[in-house]
Amino acid sequence: EDQVTQSPEALRLQEGESSSLNCSYTVSGLRGLFWYRQDPGKGPEFLFTLYSAGEEKEKERLKATLTKKESFLHITAPKPEDSATYLCAVQDRWKTSYDKVIFGPGTSLSVIP
Amino acid sequence: DADVTQTPRNRITKTGKRIMLECSQTKGHDRMYWYRQDPGLGLRLIYYSFDVKDINKGEISDGYSVSRQAQAKFSLSLESAIPNQTALYFCATGTGAGQPQHFGDGTRLSIL
Q1: For chain B, which terminus, N or C, has the lower number of CB atoms within 10 Å?
Q2: A13 part of contact set with chain B, CB < 8 Å
Q3: Residue B41 has what pLDDT?
Q4: Span A99-107, average pLDDT
Q5: pLDDT in tens, B33-50
């Protein structure tokens, strides 16, 4: 069964303290892995799509990487405005008849000034 | 202006009431989705639609119905609301497999 887990559930960082969020997934075949950012009272905002192991994407202080079983979202020198919940989601290559996307529960990141 | 607009943003109602949540989009996407979000459970798909004439159940459709009035409009109804339908509801649009979905800012629904 397709599954996505994320760790840690919550993370508190000092401003400037780099760290990584983990997304572990189980699918028959990966169609795509998505990272979203969600602020309180807002909908998920798309960050990255990764398609194959070894792929990396960067945006400002964020860098997403992908292996065959997990993805990492690396946050370099975070700022308080990076505080949010980060969601990981996967799409199974063999279940694309309805674009089924499995979402993880998210990691709540707090960056303290 | 938001690309995906949901109304209302907040709603409090009583058990047994019929409720409609509305979603409209200006992204020009054919595919639209309704999700609910509960703490610790992630987003779960309720219904999805690939075009006006194509509507399908997602993983948790019991107690819900939908209507696709136009390419840009997709509404979700709770025929007889119950307290365990209290949740955040999100509408999303998409262009196809392997592409990201784009979300509205949600409706916070409380059923007393």
Answers
A1: N
A2: no
A3: 82
A4: 89
A5: 999 999 878 899 999 999
CB-based contact A31 B90, cutoff 8 Å: no
DSSP secondary structure code for residue A83 in this structure:
-
Rounded to the nearest angstrom, the minimum Cα separation between B103 and chain A is: 6
DSSP conformation class of A28: S
Buried b (16+ CB within 10 A) or exposed e, B2-22: eebbbeeeebebeeeeebebb
Burial of B95 (0-12, 13-18, 19+ CB in 10 A): middle
Q: Assess contact for A32 and A48: CB atoms under 8 A.
A: no
**Interval A50-77: pLDDT, tens:** 999 999 999 999 999 999 999 999 999 9
CB B36 within 8 A of CB B84: no
Q: Taking CA A96 as the corner, what is the angle to CA A58 and CA B106, rounded to the nearest 5 degrees? A: 65
- A98 close contact with B: CB closer than 8 A: yes
Residues 63-82 of A with CB under 8 A from B: none
Chain A CA closest to residue B103:
A43
What are the tokens at B102?
Answer: 């784009």
Q: CB distance from B60 to chain A under 8 Å?
A: no
Q: Residue B103: which of A4, A31, A43 has the nearest Cβ?
A: A43
Contact list in A for residue B45 (CB cut-off 8 A) is 100-101
